[in-house]
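Dear U.,

For the methods section draft, I wanted the exact inputs and outputs in one place so we can describe them consistently. I've listed the two proteins in the order they'll appear in the manuscript figures. Please don't edit the token lines directly; just add comments below if something needs changing.

First protein:
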Amino acid sequence: MPTALIPRHPVPSLNVPLVGGGRFVLGASPGEHFDLIVFYRGLHCPICAKYLLELERLSGEFAARGTQVVAVSSDDEVRGREMSDKVKAAGIKFAYGLSLRSARQWGLYVSTSRGKTSIGIEEPAFFSEPGVFLVRPDGTLYYGAVQTMPFARPQFQDLVSAIDFAITKNYPARGEFTGEV
């Protein structure tokens, strides 16, 4: 069962290989204000491709706001590269090889294969469902959203506006209270 991450608390580690070489190690070289971590289902997901095309389109907006962007899946290197190519990634980094254990540590849901998708690509035996996280340079969670389905994800244009607000107003991460209610 996934566990919820708590705002203002450290997020799990993330150390995954990047398409094109190297590794993304969360915290090793953080964005000035945030790292935007976008977990996606994999190459088999047509909704993910559309979502990541929008992320690539807005990558300059995130960069201008001191936000480093990485898209991560549990796909292997070949499928990770195919998705990167499909969205013509230039402004966002693509990482692959996310372990399902790490996915669960991030609070992501895990699904089992239902065969080929509508675009004729086989789903992996197991894969994580989507999640979007903004992580502060100190490694603490600022924002998080996870889905049990590929539908109805946070819109990236809304996140651009939220980052503007967070920076200009020095707005704290919310949802941090863990006491009795």
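Second protein (the one for the lower panel):
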Amino acid sequence: MSRSDDARATAYDASPFLPRDGGLDAYRRAAAKCQGCPLYENATQTVFGRGDPSARVVLVGEQPGDQEDRQGEPFVGPAGRLLDKALAEAGIDRGSAYVTNAVKHFKFTVPERGKRRIHKPPTLREMSACRPWLGAELDLVRPEVVVALGATAGKALLGGSFRVTKDRGSLLPMPGAEQERYVVATVHPSAILRADDREAAYAGLVSDLKVAARVLNGS
């Protein structure tokens, strides 16, 4: 990497694209024009969060997948359908939740001899660049509990020392939150789809989501 390229890389930041005021709709419109990192160049569109603007629970994933990128909605692919099932089993109504991702553009690679777009994890720079959008969503929705779905979401919310295997299923205080707010971390639903023992992995997801449900139920 050249010195100029390195300078550009360290300058990834979505902050200049955030509106000065307004609600979620204003932020969604502004996010559609975000060029805070290079991911916008190949993605079909920005995939902003969706759901109840006054939700008591926010679900945060990693980034949009192929179907989310095409449809412009978070968690509408296979992982989203599995998440819907797990939420229902845990006693959380997705219709009253707000669902988003730590990174708003789909990052992918295309094999040399194929057309299928293969998910590629975002880098720390890309995740950091997009963090202002996630912070704005949480400030506007003001949930009581945030569910971090996977390592990227957990690090975006809790910092670089977060580890899913160590921190999942616990009720953790949200760092720097202006109001009392908790984070419950768990695996990303897509990890369950890849698991050797899907039944056990799915049961673990439901168990973790029940921790968030207990907060919402006041128990």
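Candidate sentences for the figure legend, describing the second protein: Residues 198-216 form the longest helix (19 residues). The chain has one domain: 3-216.

Thanks,
Y.
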